[in-house]
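Task: sequence in, structure out. Protein: MBL fold metallo-hydrolase.
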Amino acid sequence: MRIKLIRHATSILQYGGKKFLVDPMLSSARSMAPVDFSPNTQKNPLVELPVTIEELLDVNAVLLTHTHRDHFDEGAARLLPKKIPIFCQPEDERKIADLGFTKVYPVQETFAWEGFAWEGINIIRTGGQHGSGDLAKKMGPVSGYILDAAGEPKVYFAGDTIWCSEIEVALNKYHPNISVLYGGAAQFLEGGPITMTSEDVIQVCRKISNMNVVVVHLEAFNHCLETRDEIKRALDIRGLSDRVWIPENGELITF
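Result:
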């Protein structure tokens, strides 16, 4: 298994002989308005893509946690081939199909069955909370995914979520070898974080002591306030740095 962080939540996963483009945000830097009601008012994305569009399109499928614009933007809607398979949560099926995509596969259930089988890869949808209380309800549904294939480690993309009971259930049920967490402590002026903080990352690490962790979703969108260095310091203090990867944009990690 190989995962290459592109930028923010966008990555290329090489898994089971296939290449997945995860949460594609393909717009050029500063081409999108900032997230409203955030302490940081810079335009998005904060940084350019570190690879060519051609490399991003050289994939077999798209894995989509949800359709907020920092995970599926106008650039992705315009540039992705309309016949590429897209795996998504059921709530996003109609939106993606209305954009002209013809192979949209909603992963229907969380935990009720063993996922969506595609090309020898099992894709299982998991739940999450995009914030706390009323804010989480306003942010709408989000999903994560477990991928499982013969000869590969079991990998968990948690999606845009804080530490919550849904994450704990997923870890207890599937015992992933590798978890990809969406960090950055994204937040507005009020309401608390809507993605994982360093303390949330630490909670995940403590839940499964032999699991490797990759933290993405950092330093590329204006409402993500916690930096790579801040997360690294928190992990160093807890003695967890040896099994947590915090890649730079464009960095490839092999497991």
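The chain has a mean pLDDT of 96.
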